[in-house]
Amino acid sequence: QVQLAESGGGLVQAGGSLRLSCAASGRILSINTMGWYRQTLGKQRELVADITHGGTTNYADSVKGRFTISRDNAKNTVNLQMNSLKPEDTAVYYCNADVRTIYLFRGYWGQGTQVTVSS
Asked: Is 86 helix (H, G, I), strand (E, B) or coil?
């Protein structure tokens, strides 16, 4: 069993900053890519940013230059520093991790954390 626990969401004014954190726990052998996705009502979940085990990052065009993803492989954690937030960044943010256990290799999702940016 693998769990992803997210924290750090909340309400912030436009131009402000928030930091999201996600910690993976359970019988983990290794984690490949970790990432953050977001979803608003009536829309599909979209990739915000991800990072490989080796540290290669990938960002959605809409957040480039404002968001920074990082991870700690020893602690199985991934963070998302969000600066210069805009109202259009309002969404539920989900952590995702591609986890290898002794039984299988698959993706896991966190429960989601709400980010609300007021104008």
From this structure: coil
Q: What distance in Å separates the CA atoms of residue 33 and residue 46, rounded to the nearest whole number? A: 16
Tokens of 116: 């609300």
CB 16 within 8 A of CB 113: no
Q: Is 88 helix (H, G, I), strand (E, B) or coil?
A: helix
- Taking only the tens place, the pLDDT of each residue in 5-40 is 999 999 999 999 999 999 999 999 999 999 999 999
Instruction: Work out the end-to-end distance of the chain between its first and last CA atoms, rounded to an integer number of angstroms.
Output: 40
Task: Output b/e per residue, 72-86; b: 16+ Cβ within 10 A.
Answer: eeeebbbbbebeebe
Place 1 in a pLDDT band, splitting at 50, 70 and 90.
confident
Q: Which of 59, 39, 64, 34 is nearest to 48 (CA)?
A: 59
Q: Which two tokens stand for residue 53?
A: 């085990």
> What's the CA gap between 28 and 35, in Å, rounded?
17
Q: With contact defined as beta carbons under 8 Å apart, do 80 and 36 qualify? A: yes
